[in-house]
Amino acid sequence: MKRFTDISLKNKIFISILAVILMISAAIAFLARWILVSSLISELELRGIAIARTIAERGSGYVLDRNYPRLLSLIFDEAQLNERKHLVAYIFIVDQENNILSHTFTYPFPAHLRTANRVPPEEGKSVQLLTVGNQAAYDIALPIHEGIYRIGTVHVGLNKSHIDNLVSKLRFTFLGFISLVFFIIFIMSHKLAKYITRPISKLTRLSDELSRGNFDIQLDPGSATGDWDPSACPAYVNTDLPCWHFDDASAAREGAAEPSEHRHTCRPCVFYGKREGDEVGQLADSFRSMVWSIKLYRRRLHESEDKYRSLFDSGPDPIFVVDSSSLKIIDANPRAVELYGYEKHELVGRSFLELEPQNPRTGTASFAIDSDAHGCVFYQKVLHQKKGSKPVFVNLHACHISYRGRPAVIVAATDITEMMEKDAQLIQASKMKSLGEMSAGMAHELNQPLNAIKMGSDFLAMMMENDLEVSKENLQQVVSEMSTQVDRAADIINALRAFGRKADFVMEKVDINKPVRGVFSIVGRQFELENITITMELAKGLPPIMAHDNRLQQVFFNLVTNARDAIMEKNQTGSPRAGGTIRIRTYEADGHVVAEVRDDGAGIPDSVRDKIFDPFFTTKETSQDMGLGLAITYGIVKGYGGDIQVTTRRTEGTTFILSFPVPG
Amino acid sequence: MDKMKILVIDDEKPTLTMFRLTLNAYGYAVLTAENGKDGLEAFELERPPVVLTDIKMPGMDGIEVLRRIKAIDPKTEVIVITGHGDMDLAIRALDLDATDFINKPIRREALEQALKRARERIELARSQESQVSVEPGPNAIVIRIRGNITSHSEACLQQACREAFSLQKGKVILDFDSNASINGAGIAILTQILVDGRKEGITIAISGLSDNFKRVFKIVGISSLAGIFDTVEAASSP
Hints:
heterodimer; A: Beta-Lactamase; 5-stranded antiparallel β-sheet; B: Transcription Regulator spoIIAA; 2 domains; 9 helices
């Protein structure tokens, strides 16, 4: 049976049909032979009996009369009548004592025939196969009656070879007919099998071609009729349509179903119409449509692939494909090669950790390894290393994708080194401007200790010149005061220097109270001269935040000078020296370190409240002020992942609330 | 004679300490105050003839202190202490009848000079001597000016000048005594005189000014109207 399943469908059909026909034929042949042969033989026997009966009836008188010549002529007549001479081998008549009365043998009567076939008294007839000479014959014995007496027996020998001859003729004719039928069925089944399997094997061939990637094949596997032009379909040109064919009903129902780019499956398409009738033809049509669909999707895939490949290659930013498990770079675009300085073959296979040596637990690597993470992440200002360990700052977008069947991460990096340098320069420039603005105040500030030192030293000089005695107490006082004042001047200069220094790119842990105090040391005294009091409520033991001390100073400097300006603005209308209060508070709340700078100045009008952090926005009319102070402040705070909130009420003052995340 | 009282008002404690030591050594009785309010109280109480006050102070600033003291006693010699090179404030103070100013950091000489001039002006005011006199010299007419030149001095100064101009000598020298002090009104009068003189074709030179006032004259533009010299001799040489 296994062998049967292995053979081709064509042969299966062919062989099955043949086998069935063969069995039916054999059955018919046996049945027919049995019926025909047996009925023929019995018919012939009946004919023999009929002959015997005729002789018995006609010959009974001759037997009684002992008119043997008439009897002989009778039996010869009967034996030679028409076709009977072939059938009847012999006729003979015996009397009661089995004496031969007459016979048709042309040679001496075979003695064994005389008693070979006796009719039992109770039977009407007897049939026996006997051998006469070298021939076989059916001997039919029928008693001759006269009245109720039996006066003899007539024997009619039927020629067995003649009967056999007839039977074999019949058999031969019948067999020939069966063979003819079988032959016709053979041819037909062969054709049928071929007819069914031909399109299938053609489809198989086409499928094989398709599998091998050859799509430029004759796409008419069936006998589909010709006027079929795929380029007539709208989707053939607009590959954004979900099917290259689309629901043709739109043509029928006006505007009911416009070709939609959002549909994902196709409705039955007239364009894809199937022929009525022949299922094999339908299959062929269906197959043709399928092939066109595949062709279309392949084309779209190619287009898409080309598109994304060109995006990948021509993108202005470095892009990496990184294996999720091994963190090895699988692919990198030319820009990555350019930026990172490695050749492409050096990049591919390299661990991404070599490019991003910082914090392997928290950065892109952790995202890549975390298989539960979905979607994309964005990392800001990540320090990467180019070839030769040169640093480069990048913003990173990382997304999970499947790359050639493996989970991977696509990482797009934006080189922001230059931007960060520009940022730093801008921040620095703004700081320098601030320094310039406060230079007069700082000069005054620095003048105080210098004055005390000058006066002290002049005093000592004068006393020496005039040979006057300086009391020990006074001397002590002068000397220690001078020393204190030198320290004070040095502190001012240090604070200035710390403020003016350009910050590194790398953030450090900063206690937020430190820059607050730094700014206070710079401006506190000056503000006091303008009758502006700074009160500080700085919480102790705050967790450090990741920032730059120096930039935070700038933030607070900007905020307190703004507060000062707000107070001045309010006082313009009233007493110019009325002054005001700036309150600085630091505390911890909700895992954030918060710093509040509150003034009781003029407040911010609602109309500009949303714009205060915009660059180049300024309310100061007479202005060298560029309107960058708060924009830079905002930028710095945002750069640390922090946030600035403003609450303000006209004439009651403004509160800036800065919150910074505590690094985990 | 009692020690002369000097009130020093400065918000800087170390500065006050130094002032106290120095001025004590000079032989003054020193009163100190750390802010304008205390200063005024001390002034009301002690009425010192000389007051030294810082201008930039929290609370009541030096300008306000000056105004109030002048309101109480216009004759008080108020010397303001300004930040180094801050001439705008100095001139504002002069406008409010401050008699002199000292730059911070305070040099010993400047302090000594300022105090000396103040003492002389006080003496002068006591002696009721005429502040302005006209003396014909060999090459030019010399107008000698002493004490405080304020709006009160306008009449006599104008008269002296008219007198000098009428002599038709061609050159007039305004010789300031080293103790002379000129306030804002005085500067206005002087400018008027110089402009008038130029109109009449008379060359006017100025001599004998203290360094402080040389700077003030330069800033207010008087130096462009008249040559400024150290001595009468230098001014009168052709």
